[in-house]
Amino acid sequence: MEVIVHKYGGTSVGTPEKIKKVAERIARVKREGYEIVVVVSAMGHTTDELIDLMHKVTDSPDPREYDMLVSTGEQVSAALLAMALQSLGCPAISLTGGQAGVVTEDIYKKARIKEVKLDRLKKELKEDKVVVITGFQGIDSEGNIITIGRGGSDTSAVAIAAALKAQVCDIYTDVDGVYTADPRIVPEARKLKTISYEEMLELASLGAQVLHPRSVECASIYKMVIHLRSSQKEDEGTYIGEAPRLTTFARGKEAGKMEKKEAVRGIALDENIAKIGILKVPDKPGVAAELFGALAKEKINVDMIVQSIHSSGTQADMAFTVDGADLKKALEVTEKAAKKLGAGGVVSDPKVCKVSLVGVGMVSQPGTAAKMFETLAENKINIQMISTSEIKVSCVVAAEAGKRAVQLLHKAFGLDKISQ
Ligand code: ASP
Ligand code: MG
After folding, report:
1. 74 alpha carbon to ligand 1 midpoint, in Å?
2. Which of 52, 128, 216, 380 lies 20 to 30 Å from 223 when distance is taken between CA atoms?
């Protein structure tokens, strides 16, 4: 019998009514004659509420107890969903990550999944039960409950689907697929039928919050096709995978286009960044290593880096971006390094954002970056920083220009016109 893996996010199981709706869908699929494994997130904002609760008790939580606490949200939704299924006459059992055989590294709060031992899962499936598993958690080698990082249930689902050798991992969420841009910013944005792992990884890392980047990484390692779709509708969503495999899932025009590849397939906007500049640093070997080494030591992720020659010829200016949340810490580190290096000063600007074009077709179609710069120039949007990779062009612009830039670029690259 073919096994199907469904994952339901926090909003999709946010209320008892929604849990009952999800149960109806699962019972229907079960009647079609499949083995079904379901991975759930915690209801609504439960995990955030548990963390708030924790902060009322302590400012320095022990990591083991943190995992004990935040993993409980998923137990609530898993048990309730199993009960809802049972009351529809559909045999079901809920299992914690540990009970389901999800083994993680021995690291609290952000472990990776090492393996999924299938014995218990297979036994329950054989007894014709729907198996509902808590996402976001597993157990370590000593039997401790371990969580795998915020938003980790997507990754749990992909790992479990891969272990079960499922054809596809259906991730049900409150959006109905991956769009050419955020439809709240660009109303004409189109839903993509298919998208490659590389493109999805870029979009997910660039702030498109539809999928956890690690789940895409995991899927690409195991060649697991993800079907991202709405828990409210029956329509197909977006298939994420490798081009050849995708065509067997998503037929129709857009799927065929995976071969032709438009240069740009999606536009992302990351409003959560900040820029730091360090001025007049000596232009000599070791300077970048000193500064970025210090930042790395503090676990601050640096994204774009630009160095320009100062008019003096012996000095350089450097600018880089960090996550908005890291700005304060990054400034402290940079100021310290600036003193050590004898730099002229440090400046920062939190009011910036990053607009990125993503598409694997860029590799073979030159001119994407030039067209992006032209479009921004024609509309008097100043580019503060640029970075490119084979499948991405990103520009840092003023925060207030970000949404308009996305709208203009969406139109300029004809993303509104390509029909499904
Ligand atoms: N409930 C967890 C969180 O809020 C995991 C997830 O939703 O994927 O981070
Ligand atoms: Mg989530």
Report:
1. 8
2. 128
